[in-house]
Amino acid sequence: MNHTPASNFERQHLMNKLPRDVVAELVICLASNIQYQKDILAVISQSQQLDFLNYDQFFINQAKPIIEAMFGSSPDLTNDVTTVINGSKMIITKQTCEEAVHIFIDVLMSQHFILMNNRVNANSNETPTELKHQTEILKLPYDEIDPFLNRLVRRGILKKGKFVKSSKQSGTYESYLKYLPSDPLEEKELSFELQRHHIQFDEYQEIYKVSAVSPDRTILTMDGKFVMKKQNVNFMVLNNH
């Protein structure tokens, strides 16, 4: 794979997409792994007659004095192994830390956002229906859309949860599901709320029936399947269908 290092602007853009504590933890893990590899190679480079397919006693006898010269004598593991392990420390050099930061930003994060389809081939990934609905949202005279959706949730018209996920990737989406009543009282309350939008309950039922189960390139999560099945069954019982 050809790789072009990220510009300073791209680096800042990528870094702003993750919480700093998460970035710090990931970089530390990466730096630790790099330092492990360096330490291993440093020991191997001083060994003689190394056979990568056979780590026998001869190799152990060679490696032990090299390791003790570089990192100190081996701890006594005959007593409290947990205390020894918790008390041991690994020295990560400044150079290794810098290498970890560059690899994380220039390689791992860049590839992550490419894999997650972040602003890559955006025009070709939108269906006409999706573009239509997105355009309607963009034309709204507001910057924040969530408060309006959350109001519909509080009013009992929508449900909010992790109902859908990508059909090709592992990520789940916070999504909204049209609500169906499960008893006469809920039906009456929902009908009242819908009238404020000039929508009759019978019309709302038809909208629900013809609505797509999930947006294009998404599938229902287990929770989504459970919630939809439950409310569909309850609604059928309510209407004796």
Summarize the structure in words.
- The protein has 241 residues and is mainly α.
- It has helices spanning 8-15, 20-45, 57-71, 81-87, 94-115, 128-138, 146-154, 184-195, 201-210, 222-239; strands at residues 158-166, 172-178, 218-220.
- The protein has 2 domains: 8-115, no CATH class; 143-239, no CATH class.
- It is 57% helix and 8% strand.
- Strands 2-1-3 form a 3-stranded antiparallel sheet.
- The chain is elongated and about 85 Å long.
- The two termini are 57 Å apart.
- Residues 1-6 and 117-124 have low confidence and may be disordered.
Backbone shape? elongated
Strand order of the largest sheet: 2-1-3
Task: Write down the overall mean pLDDT.
Answer: 77
Structural class: mainly alpha
N-to-C SSE series?
HHHHHHHEEHHEH
- How large is the share of residues in beta strands? 5-15%
Q: Please give the alpha-carbon distance between the first and last residues.
A: 57 Å
Radius of gyration: 29 Å
* Total number of strands: 3
Number of domains: 2
- Major beta-sheet overview: 3 strands, antiparallel
